[in-house]
Structure formats: structure tokens, C-alpha cells
Amino acid sequence: MSKLLRGSFAVAQARQCVNSWLNAGRNSRVFTPVPRNQPKMLRRASVMVEKLADPETIWKMAHPGKTHSMALPITAWYIGAGIVGFLLLPLFIPFSNLMLVVIPTVTVVTLIHFFFYSYPQWPLKTRIRQYITSRIFHFYGMYLSWQYHNDSKKLHHTQEQTLLALLKENATTQYSTDHNLGNITSIEDFRERHPIIKYEYIRPYVEREMQGTRNQLTKRKPTYFGKTSGTTGSPSIVPHTRFTGLQQLGNLALFMYNADNKVQWSELHWMRPVWKASYTPPRIIEKTESGVLRGPVTANPIWTKMGEIYTVPSIAFQIEDAGAGGYVQILFALRFRELGAIEGIFASLVYFAFQRMESEWKDLVNDIRHGTLKPDPKVPLHIRQELLKHLRPDAQRADELEIEFNKGFEGIGSRLWPELGIINCITTGAFAIYAKYLREFYCKGILLYSTCLASTEGFLGANFWPFNQPIPRYSILPRTHFYEFIPLEEISKPDPETVLADELRIGSDYELVITTGSGLCRYRMGDLIRVVSFYNQVPLFEFVSRASAMLSSKGEKITEELIYSCLSIAEKELKAAGKLERIADYSSCESVLMEMVKAPLTQKGSHHIYFVEMVPTKPDADVKELAKELAEKIDHEIAKRHFRYKELREINSLSPPVVAPVKAEAFHRLKEYMQMTSTASFAQIKIPRVLAKQELLKFLLNERL
User: Which of 15, 31, 367, 442 could form a disulfide with 354 if both were Cys (CB 3.0 to 4.6 A apart)?
Assistant: First the structure.
């Protein structure tokens, strides 16, 4: 009996540890350990919880009787009872007396909530706008969450209704007429009538829209033309209309409501200034012949109407040079002690911002101490003068920063900003390596929340589960797009078969195909996703890679996800051996691309080349020997996980891989080069994990050690 009591006590204490972890001030993922002087059974229970419980299990342990279901605790009975009660109440209390009580009570409660909830240093107009917007989004998001839950039980029906609504929205367009889409009545009819397409198929319609010819791809007049980065090919242009804008706002409300149930999203990200680490210079925005602007979707005018809600004055976004603008962004973020969230779009942007902070912290501290902005000819005089109006000498803050910087940069994020709880950025695919370093070094204990999977074409999925780390999972949005999926084995076929959202299988990989309100029909996204779970009938998926981002000189199809996974394992082994501190960045290519640029090869036969920026443990380490060892480990790890690769290696059809070490910050220079030689903004640029462009390969060849 005594052992049973001690065991129950141990479990209770372990649960307290879990609760302390979950309810920590910034939703940190740091587990509160049990002290060594506590009973052995208690420590065992704590270790069991820490090691064996995934985020879902821990959440359920800390909230008995609750689930992660998005279903609202509202039934028809409760709604009916509430309506009847409200209607009958005037029979017992005179209506005038009731209003005398209700109106003042609601007003007082709202005012108290407003003054405690909103940021006091904002102008009153901004405070009111942000507060009212957050409340509207909360209640609208509550309704959309209820709708999402109901839709998840009848997915096929919902998707069919969504398809018909999207086709009806653009039924009178030239594209719809040319493809006879106006009288489609079912999913089957649509799939038979319209082929799977890529951007070139719709390019003539988009170009006519940009020239001012109306009703080509969209019925409504475009409000903006979103332009892709063109990292993996030529840029694509997608029209955005008021219809798609309202869809985006609805998706934002749905996300915000569910995020608020798990993290302090509105409080940290909406009701106080945010550091916007992403940057889009004005020169990137172009005006089309139709008079409508064209540029990155992140620079869509819909987001510029938010007002002065960032840590930096909005005039700073007019700085043309991304480097000069980035310095100003960091400077103003450091001045703000109460920072609760960073908006980075991509993990790489946040990583480079912290990296720059590490190299230029003395200038930043000096500017904060004296209320100055260091000389930079790339900041126009009128912008500099306006920024200086917002800068005041702050010796106290400068001293705080200097002390923390001198301690080193491990965990610097939470030391500079104790209330920093959320970094909103994409952490998958090409950005996984940056997210890993942020979690392990700069931003220990801070939640990196990949809120959605989005592209210029639209929101593809939303992440309602912030603690599913390090690989986020997303839900499709059944009322936003009509989804189809190409199975992995069909991707290379000219006319691939597709399956619907309610026909997917857990563990299988697919390429996304969407039909949208922008007039895109059965449009191949080129994104590979993996189904990992279901919410009722709605598939939940992880992003794998771009479908084109594969090493496949002999048909082996090595995805960028597999490359990163094996590279991480090799890095871990070399780190444990005391030879490598970390891998800062990487890319890869097939040997045939080297032959195309007439670069000398170190070995014969088809093989993979990995360009790796390594940080050895010892400054005088033999980097070339380390590269050979890394290549052997990558080869071994891929062979363990990929049967076709192993088979090709065993018969010598595929030669061993080669690791080509590159100079420090080579990939940062590559990113700057990509930005200078394209029309994309710095925020849009992604380092390709599998090289396809000869000019990028030539650049990295010049960066080799």
C-alpha cells in the first residue's frame, strides 16, 4: 500500500512538473526537472514523462478530460436554451431595467479588458483599432472553427461545394468560357474536363490581365499581382482579388482563434509592437500596364494598411537597400524591451538578423546609448531625419544590452527580450537548418511557430498545433481551395492521376494540386507533402520538399528532406567526436551539372556533390579530411534509408558522394547575389538545396576552400 501511495504521489508530482512546463510565462518547451534529492520513484516518473510523452500526450495529461479537438463546447441544446432564456428574461425583469444593468456592465468590462490588454504606448486610435480587430477576429474565428469541425466530418461534400463555388466565382471569364467550366456540376465532371496544368498554361491570360484586359482569369478586377521568387525557375504571376483577400482574412481569423487557445498569440503578436524581420524594398514593387501593382505577396497592399504596429516606424520600409534597412529593423527592435513576437516569414531571415546582431552589436549599442543612427549613405537623408525623431538616448537599455552581449549569444533572444514568446516563421524544407540553429543557439526556449504553409498562389494549409515540434503539421483548408494530390509514383508522368483529400493514406507522399479563387484550375504547386494524421476526415500533412528538388541522376530520387535528415545525423556524429561544431549551410547538385559548366570533377562516374559550410571545432582542423569523413557518413546514412540508392551504389552505377567545403558566409553571399540578379526581394530568396541553375553552381565553385 505504501508503495502504491508513493507511486501515486510520484505521478502527481510529475504532472505538476508538466503543468509548470506548459504554463510557463512564454510557453517555453523547457521541461522543469525534478531535483535529485526527491524520491527515486518521483524522478523515474518525471523522466518517463519527459522522454516518452509527445506534445499531445503531455497536453492531455495536464488538461484531464480535454482534447485537441477544434470542436466548440456548444451544442444545439445550449444555443436553444440561451435564446429562449434571453427571450423570456424580459417577462421577469422589465426590458428598460435589464438594459440599465446589461449595457453599463458590458461597457465597464470591455473598457477594463481594453486598457489591460492593449499596448499603452500606442496612439489611442491604434490601440482601439487593434483591440476591435482582435475581438472581431476572435468571434469570427470561433464561428469558422465550428464550421471547420463540422466540415471535417463530411469532407468530400464540403470539397465538392467549394469547387462549385470557386468555379461559379469566375464562371464568366474568358478562361472559363474557353474550357467550358460554367456548367460543371460535380468533381468527376471537372476532373474529366480540365487537365492538370502548370503556369505556362495560364500565362497568356495573366499577361492580358496585367495589360488591362478585364475578365480573363478572374471575374473581379485584380487588386494585386503576386509574383513568385523564381528560385527554382522563371517567376510566376498570380492575380489577387477582393474575393481572395476576404478568404485570407477568414483564414487568419480561424488561425488566430485556435492559436489563442494554445499560446498567447493575440497578446504577444497582435496587441503590442512586433519586430518584422522580413524586408521588401520598394523598388521590388512594379506597376503593370493596368495600373495594378505587382510584387511579392508579402508586400501586398492589404498588409500595409495595418498602421504603425511594428517596432520600427513605417517609413523605414521605404529604405531601398536591404542591408541598411535590416540594420534599422534590428536597432529599433533592440530598443523595445517588451517585445513579444518576431515576424520573420522564413527562419533564414530571423537567423541572418541574429547573425548580423552578433557581428554589429557594438554599433547597435552605441546608437541606442546616444540616440543616433550610424552613418550610411544607403539611408536617404529624409528617411534618416524622420527616424532620428523616434530615437532618444537610452543609456539604461544600452547597458542592459551590453551586459547580455558580453555573456555570449547562446540563448540571447530570451535574455534580450524576457517576454519574447513566439517567432513566426516557416521552419520546414530549405529553412530547416536555420530553424535548428535558432532553437539550439540564438533562441533557446522560444517557440518557433510555422503558422501556415503559404505561397503566392494562396494559403495551402494552417498549423493549429504549435507544440508539434520540430516538424510542423498543417491542415488543408476545405473551404478555401479544392485540393487534389498526385501520388509520388505518378509525379514524373505527363498526365498523372490524382486522388482526392478523402482518399489519402497516412505515410504516403503526394504533390499538391489546387483549384483557387484566383482562377487557377487543377494547378500543380510543385510541393511534396506527407500525410501524417487526420482530423476526422481532414488530412494533416508535413511539407517534404519541392517536387523538383531531388538528386536523381540514375532515377534514385533523393529528396531535399532526406538530404537534410542524413546531413543532420552526420553532423551529430562528428560533433560527438569533437571534430565539428556545426554545419552552417549547404546545397547540392548532380555531377552532370558540373560537366555542363565544364568544372573539373574529383572522381569519375555519376555522383552527388554537396557544398557545405562547416564550422570545425578546432580552427586549424584539416577541412578537406573532415569533408571526406562527412561524405562517407552521408553516403552511409542515405544507403540505410533509401533502397534504390543502396542498390545503385552496390553495383557501382552511382559513385560515392563528394563534399566540397566552402568559405565562411558563402551562402549569405550567394543569397545577396541571387537578390541582385533577380527581381525578387531579399525576403523571398531561398537557398536552393538542390541546384538547377548553372550560374548558382558557378558562384559556389568560386567559394570553395
Answer: 442
Instruction: Give the closest residue to 152 by CA, choosing from 459, 461, 476.
Output: 476
| Residue 616, pLDDT score | 92
Cell readout for 67 is: 482534447
Beta carbons within 8 Å of 230's beta carbon, 6+ residues apart: 236, 678, 679, 680
CA distance 500 to 514: 11
- Residues 416-458: tens digit of each pLDDT: 999 999 999 999 888 888 899 999 999 999 999 999 998 888 8
Query: CA 300 to CA 244: how far, in whole Å?
Result: 12
Please return the burial class of 623, using the count of CB atoms within 10 Å of its CB with bins 0-12, 13-18 and 19+: middle
Are the C-beta atoms of residues 423 and 344 closer than 8 Å to each other?
Answer: yes
pLDDT for 317 equals 85
Sorted by sequence, the CB contacts under 8 Å of residue 434 that are 6+ apart come out as: 346, 347, 348, 350, 351
3 state DSSP class of 528: strand
Where along the chain do its domains lie? Answer: 2-62, 155-227+473-546, 272-283+298-452, 550-701
DSSP-derived secondary structure letter, 662: B
pLDDT band (50, 70, 90) for residue 302 = low
**For residues 227 and 285, what is the distance between their CA atoms, to the nearest angstrom?**
10
Is residue 518 within 8 A of residue 241, CB to CB? The reply is yes
pLDDT digits (tens, 9 = 90+) for 133-180: 999 999 999 999 999 999 999 999 999 999 999 999 999 999 999 999
Instruction: Check: CB of residue 612 under 8 Å from CB of residue 570.
Output: no
Residue 504 and residue 518: Cα distance in Å, rounded?
A: 25
Report the candidate in 166, 179, 255, 272 with the shortest Cα–Cα distance to residue 219: 166
Q: Is the pLDDT of residue 70 over 70?
A: no
CA distance 394 to 399: 9
Nearest to 655 by CA among 590, 586, 705: 590
Confidence class of residue 332 from pLDDT cuts 50, 70 and 90?
very high
Q: Which of 474, 5, 456 is nearest to 224 (CA)?
A: 456
